Input
Amino acid sequence: MAGLIDELVDVMTMENDIYKELIPIADEKTRVIIKNDLDALQKITEREQLTIEKINTLERRREEVIINIGTVLSRDPKELNMKELIRVMGKQPQEQRRLEKVHDELKETLQRLVTINDRNKELINQSLEMIQFNMNLIQSTRMAPGVNNYTRAAGESDIRQAGTGMFDAKQ
Output
């Protein structure tokens, strides 16, 4: 059992390390979103995807270890969350402390990452709202014929059909 707990602690430590790698990437993403640099945003997203693939691999490995622990303890692995596993390890205080420590560190790292990602999500939503506002503004000025035209023939030569949008669907 101690070997399985060691393996679980190792996997969770590696997961925590990889999540910590995502924090500066997410901070960089914030700066790129603010600058509205789409090329840099795409590169950051690709880096994030590579890191997430590593996390997914470790997550599958962690699930396998939990299944093995459940088998040893004669318990359903689906019912073995970290708090329950820490409680069960009460008779082995050294393993219990190690498991608690890595669990708390991972929880703290994930909370930091969630905070940054929520901020980035809000910035992206604001950016999208601004784009939508600008598109609506452009479209409404295009639909108002002759408003900003000061030539003598303005009423005849520059009238546009109401309802024509910014994008030509026939192209």
Helices lie at 2-35, 38-73, 82-88, 93-143, 154-157. Confidence is low (pLDDT under 50) at residues 157-171. Residues 2-140 form a domain with the Methane Monooxygenase Hydroxylase; Chain G, domain 1 fold (CATH 1.20.58.300).
